[in-house]
Every structure is written in C-alpha cells, then in structure tokens.
C-alpha cells in the first residue's frame, strides 16, 4: 500500500482538483466566489496524531451543513436518543436537501433525518441554554475542545446573509411548528441554525472534528471522553446513510465510511479507529457536495482501503 504522506496527498489533490470543473461555487455565501472554483485542500489526522496536509488547506469556509453533526451531538447529549428521535427521524431520503414536500407526505410529519435542513432546525430547537447566544456559545466551546483551538468564531457576514435569504428555512421551520414537531420558539431555533452554519473552519478543524468521532469521543491530547461512544455511533450511522444529501448511497458504496458535507464545499470524513479527514473544495454539484472533494474522498478510500466493508483477505 502507498504511504499516506504529504507527497501522496499533494499528488492526489492535483489529480482530483480537475473535478472542480464539474461543480460551481455557491455565489450567495459571502467570502466564496469564482476565484475559489479550483481550490482543493485536505488535512488528514491519523489516530496516533500524525497530521498530513496539502493543497489549499489554509482556506477557511463556514461549517454550513457540517454543523449538523455537532448540533446533533449536543442535542443527544442534552436530551438522549429517545427524545431526539421523537422529533426527527433517522432515515435517508430521495428529495433535495431543502425539500418541503416530504414534510407533508408522511404520517408523523417529522423531518426524515437530522442531516437535512428541516431536521437540523428541529435539532437546533433541542439544544439547551438560556438564550440563543448561550446555546451558540456551548457549540463553540465544544468545538474549541474538539479542535484544541483557542479561537473558533462565527462569520457575522455569512450569518446575516443567510438570515436575510432564509425564507426557505423559515418555511420549513414554521411548517414544523404548525404540525407540532417544533415545540419551542421557532425564530430562536432558526437563528441558532443560521449561526451554526456560519461558524468558520479550515481543513484542520474539519479533520479534528472527524478524528473526535473516529476516536470515540476522546478529546485530543487527553483521555477525557466527553460524549458517549453510543451517541457518536448513532451520528456516524446517520452520516453514512444521509450525510452526503441525496448522494449518500453513492458515497456509502464508493467511499464506505461516514462523511458529512456542507454547501460551502467542506467534507468531514470519519474512518473509525483510523483517521479523521477534513476536505475543502468549494465547487459543489447540484446535490450540494464538493465535486473535487468527493473525488478525493473516493480516491483515499480506494488507495488506503478505508471502506468499512472491506474484508482484507478477499481484496
Ligand atoms: N446554509 C445552507 C442552508 O441552510 C446550509 C445547507 C448545507 O450546507 O447543506 O440552506
């Protein structure tokens, strides 16, 4: 097997960068524009802490949908599995990530899973705290611990822009209010959701988040376990089935490990017991996934046998 070192990653990124041509950078997010079209960066942190970075790995983006795994983490911690999944399902879906129609189609009218917008807004309503600021602070503090960084900030400009253009998310939230799925203050749940999306990260942060999952909830540089491994397993299973929007099946087959993407081009890739992968490639496809980033995830899986369903002696 090849060595997963900087030279390998640099070459792999150059190869996968070509796939950026198949995607487009979302133009309504402040800070992202066509100059980011061909950017691709990655950081991989192995279980022993060895870190490999290459490409445009110092670019920063906002967490967007990758935040959905962190808010789910807190909600599970705050309320436990039973209560959380009374409000949101855990099934994959066919519809686009901002679908409204599915809310009306099923009897219990709750969002299919926590990785789509409706589900994440419902999850945001389950984060404990005195105020929206207080709840955001809890997420930021958790992220600081997970990434071992002193500063994690929310991008105000992105937050304001998403709030301004958030009619679709508002519609999802108010629909859920009308059906009784969302029982707390709707505007607060939405506000928190917009703030989560706007938290700034780079490849290293995404890799650290992934590593936290891959190590079963143990903090970096310590043995302190802050989230139960049971909750992490639940989230990883949902990432595997729904984390890449309506392309999750393809990623389950072709990568074979849990991933979560965001529309700003980030991907968190969790290889349990082996490594955490953070990728940023802002050109995304129609389904919301980074085209070059997705290619890199698939290549890493093939080259290093990361597929969880791999059976050594048969490959
Ligand atoms: N800002 C996006 C939205 O709420 C986030 C979605 C995503 O990354 O998938 O529509």
Written description of the protein model:
By secondary structure, the protein is of the alpha+beta class. The protein has twelve helices and nine strands. The strands form three sheets. It has a five-stranded antiparallel beta sheet. The protein has a two-stranded antiparallel ribbon with strand order 1-9. α6 packs across α8 (186-197). The longest helix is centred in the first third of the chain and has 21 residues, at 67-87. The protein is globular, with a radius of gyration of 18 Å. The chain starts with 5 loop residues before the first helix and ends in an 11-residue tail after the last helix. The chain binds glutamic acid.
Task: Provide a brief overview of the structure.
By secondary structure, the protein is of the alpha+beta class.
Topology:
Blueprint: H1 6-17, E1 24-25, E2 41-46, E3 51-55, E4 61-62, H2 67-87, H3 101-105, H4 117-124, H5 132-147, H6 156-164, H7 167-179, H8 186-197, E5 200-201, H9 203-214, H10 229-242, H11 248-254, E6 259-261, E7 266-271, E8 275-280, E9 283-284, H12 291-304
Helix pairs in contact: 1-12, 2-4, 2-10, 4-7, 4-8, 5-8, 6-8, 7-8, 10-11
The structure holds glutamic acid.
What is the count of DSSP helices, taking H or I runs of 4+ residues?
12
Number of strands: 9
Uncertain spans: none
Which molecules other than protein and nucleic acid are bound? glutamic acid
Strand content: 5-15%
Order of helices and strands: HEEEEHHHHHHHEHHHEEEEH
Mean pLDDT: 93
Largest sheet: 5 strands, antiparallel
- The end-to-end distance, rounded to whole angstroms, is 12 Å
Global morphology: globular
What's the arrangement of strands in the largest beta sheet?
3-2-8-7-6
* Structural class assignment: alpha+beta
Rg, Cα atoms, Å: 18 Å
The helical percent reads: 40-55%
């Amino acid at each position: 097997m090849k060595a997963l070192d900087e030279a390998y990653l640099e070459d792999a990124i150059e190869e996968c960068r070509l796939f950026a041509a198949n995607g487009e950078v979302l133009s309504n997010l402040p800070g992202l524009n066509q100059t980011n079209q061909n950017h691709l960066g990655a950081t991989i942190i192995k279980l022993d802490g060895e870190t490999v970075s290459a490409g445009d790995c110092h670019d920063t983006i906002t967490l967007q949908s990758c935040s959905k795994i962190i808010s789910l983490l807190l909600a599970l911690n705050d309320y436990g599995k039973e209560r959380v999944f009374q409000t949101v399902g855990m099934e994959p879906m066919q519809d686009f990530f901002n679908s409204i129609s599915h809310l009306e189609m099923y009897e219990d009218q709750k969002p299919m899973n926590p990785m789509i917008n409706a589900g994440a807004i419902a999850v945001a309503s389950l984060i404990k705290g005195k105020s929206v600021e207080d709840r955001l602070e809890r997420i930021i503090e958790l992220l600081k611990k997970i990434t071992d960084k002193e500063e994690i900030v929310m991008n105000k400009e992105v937050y304001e822009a998403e709030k301004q253009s958030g009619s679709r998310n508002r519609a999802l939230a108010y629909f859920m209010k009308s059906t009784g799925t969302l029982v707390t203050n709707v505007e607060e749940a939405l506000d928190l959701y917009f703030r989560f999306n706007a938290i700034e990260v780079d490849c290293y942060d995404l890799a650290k988040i992934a590593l936290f999952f891959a190590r079963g909830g143990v903090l970096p540089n310590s043995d302190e376990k802050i989230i139960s491994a049971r909750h992490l397993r639940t989230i990883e299973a949902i990432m595997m089935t729904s984390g890449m929007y309506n392309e999750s099946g393809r990623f389950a087959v072709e990568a074979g490990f849990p991933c979560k993407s965001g529309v700003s081009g980030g991907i968190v890739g969790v290889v349990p017991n082996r490594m955490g992968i953070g990728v940023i490639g802002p050109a995304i496809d129609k389904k919301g996934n980074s085209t070059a980033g997705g290619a890199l995830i698939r290549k890493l899986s093939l080259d290093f046998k990361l597929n969880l369903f791999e059976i050594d002696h048969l490959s």
